[in-house]
């Protein structure tokens, strides 16, 4: 049995295999590019979430400070109203003496 060569794949099948291989490579490249893009976007989202958390913390601190300042101002306003009410009861002469002393 000399001179007999092994059967070879038909040329059409060989061309089909190359086309399939090229398509597989193309899909692998696309998946690779999409994976890289996904990682970049995840990184951006992580940074944005960190910034949001920092801004939220700053806002909460500023809000707490504003509430504290408002409470202090309300207390001072109440004290001033009470002092005004007390001084309204003073007689004219006492108010004039107080004003002349510069208090």
Describe it:
It is a single chain. By secondary structure, this protein is mostly helical. The protein has one domain (16-101). The protein is built from two helices and no strands. The protein has helices spanning 11-88, 92-101. The chain is rod-shaped, with a radius of gyration of 43 Å. The N and C termini lie far apart (130 Å). The model has no long low-confidence stretch (mean pLDDT 88).
Tally of separate domains: 1
**Total helix count?**
2
By DSSP, the count of extended strands is 0
Mean pLDDT: 88
Rg from alpha-carbon coordinates? 43 Å
Q: Which class of secondary structure composition applies to the elements?
A: mainly alpha
N-to-C order of helices and strands:
HH
Give the DSSP E fraction (strand runs of 2 or more residues).
under 5%
Overall geometric form: rod-shaped
Q: Runs with pLDDT <50, length 5+?
A: none
First CA to last CA: what distance?
130 Å
Largest sheet: none
The residue fraction in helices comes out at over 70%
Describe the secondary structure blueprint for this structure.
Layout: H1 11-88, H2 92-101
Sum up the structure in keywords:
mainly alpha; 103 residues; rod-shaped; 2 helices
Summarize the structure.
By secondary structure, the protein is an all-alpha fold. The chain is 85% helix and 0% strand.
């Amino acid at each position: 049995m000399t001179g007999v060569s092994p059967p070879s794949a038909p040329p059409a099948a060989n061309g089909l295999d190359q086309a399939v291989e090229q398509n597989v490579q193309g899909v692998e490249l696309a998946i690779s590019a999409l994976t890289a893009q996904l990682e970049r976007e995840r990184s951006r989202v992580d940074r944005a979430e960190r910034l949001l958390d920092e801004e939220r913390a700053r806002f909460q601190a500023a809000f707490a400070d504003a509430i504290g300042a408002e409470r202090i101002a309300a207390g001072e306003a109440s004290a001033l109203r009470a002092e005004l009410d007390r001084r309204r009861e003073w007689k004219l002469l006492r108010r004039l003496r107080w004003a002349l002393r510069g208090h």
